[in-house]
Amino acid sequence: MWQVIKKPCVHYSLGFLVIGGFIAGVIFWGGFNTALELSSTEEFCSSCHQNVYQEMQPTIHFSNRSGVRATCHDCHVPHKWTDKIARKMQASKEVWAYLVGTINTPEKFEAHRKEMAQREWSRLKANNSLECRNCHEFDYMDFTRQSSRAAKMHSTYLESGEKTCIDCHKGIAHQLPDMQGVEGW
């Protein structure tokens, strides 16, 4: 076995190629994960979505009595690695739209707000509002500290699985688009 590893492979030994490939893989993986994390920061998101970032600032998800704050990636990027990669691939369309000028001004963004919001609501609906549930767990909700309407809705619809968070909490951190024609409004 050692002879096969030491034996030259045209110009380089198999051992050199394996070790070199391993090192190149580690460098690629480290660079990839660094880019993934950097593109999940508020600074990165708000460089294009400044208007959306500003409208989030007065909400309870930005500033509240407990000091727990949701950042862009908490709500818009799944935590599980495979889901995160899929979402990042989807988000590349948004980066492209910004670069080619489709949503690069507040006016153009507003013109596409409803379409983008519906796409995000559909994504959250399809994954049972997973990003919401990363912080808000049904099993730990204290219904006695909620309004009677909220307690009834949560205990009825969330528990049965008939509805998910985004069905009722559209616009929780961002301004709503024109809601005409949106189901439930």
UniProtKB/TrEMBL annotation:
It is found in: Cell membrane. One of its GO terms (biological process) is anaerobic respiration. The chain crosses the membrane at residues 12-32. Pfam families: Cytochrom_NNT. Binds 4 heme groups per subunit. Keywords: Cell membrane, Electron transport, Heme, Iron, Membrane, Metal-binding, Transmembrane, Transmembrane helix, Transport. Heme 1 binds at residues 45, 48, 94. Residues 10-179 form the NapC/NirT cytochrome c N-terminal domain. GO terms for cellular component: plasma membrane. It comes from the Bacteria. It is a single-pass membrane protein. The keyword Ribonucleoprotein does not apply. GO terms for molecular function: electron transfer activity; heme binding; metal ion binding. Binds 4 heme groups per subunit. InterPro entries: Cytochrome_c-type_ET (IPR051174), Multihaem_cyt_sf (IPR036280), NapC/NirT/NrfH (IPR024717), NapC/NirT_cyt_c_N (IPR005126), NapC/NirT_cytc_sf (IPR038266). This is Cytochrome c-type protein.
